[in-house]
Amino acid sequence: MTFLEIANELVAGCREDRARQNLDRLYAADAVSVEAADMGGGRETVGLAGIHGKHDWWEGAFITHGLTVEGPFVHGDDRFAVIFGMDTEDRATGVRTQGREVAVYHVKNGKIVREEFFYSS
Prior knowledge:
Elements: H1 3-15, H2 19-26, E1 27-34, E2 44-46, H3 48-61, E3 62-75, E4 79-90, E5 96-108, E6 111-119
Parallel strand pairs: 1-6
Antiparallel strand pairs: 1-2, 3-4, 4-5, 5-6
């Protein structure tokens, strides 16, 4: 896939609830995921299996009531950003929150090799 095809497919997958399937298609086996804050497991996750684990944790911890996806916003031929808007409910507490985050994706050799998340305060 080309850089733009990867960027557009990631966005389409998020909009169409195919984000999980896209991990295996779009990400390198040794991809790195970096969170803005430590949620208990460290800020950085290395490897596709670990990134799948992050998705498992998220799906187990939160109910997503709404999701907006803006982008991709390209930067050269190796990076793009996506803006996510989320309406989520914590399964443990029932607390519902709305937030936005920016994700920056780095692409190399036809795969996403790094993702970085920036949260609204």
